[in-house]
Amino acid sequence: MKKRVAVLISGRGSNLQALLDAEQNAYEVALVVSNIPNAAGLDRAREAGVEAIALDHKRYGQNREAFERDLDALLVQRNIEIVALAGFMRVLTPYFVRAWQGRLLNIHPSLLPKLPGTKTHERALAAGESEHGCTVHLVVDEVDAGEILGQARMPILPGDTPQTLAERVLTLEHELYPRCLAEYAQTL
Description:
CATH architecture of the domain at 3-108 and 136-146 and 174-185: 3-Layer(aba) Sandwich
Radius of gyration: 16 Å
């Protein structure tokens, strides 16, 4: 039986689209939630016939846990079994991470444990790395430190810029994330 997945987004939803388009029998995207009300990814979800909800984090001020408690309630009400972060640009509190422990996945644009956090493409170039890529991992309290479920690698080419790296890594993400999510869903 397919696992019910919620995808959390903050932007255009290109990884969401890859998860929606993947041909497999392990999961179904049952819900998309964005913390940004006008995120283009919400339209992608609706076009695919998936429930799409905007839960504006700004309404909660500095109370991140209150936002996450309402998010958690949405997920529980819809019988979500796995949460996939796909360009969700918020660091989650320990409350949410623990509530979804072992069922919360993220895609990160670097070869973890190298380059956790933001600006990975710029940092890879500045460090003189010879390769770059992306990682799917379980989310834990420490940012980008959870168990690695899969990685995709590519060489850094002469003349690469942060923009060219970002474009090439995104292509890898679109292949890696659906595969890792499907494989992980089959273990639950």
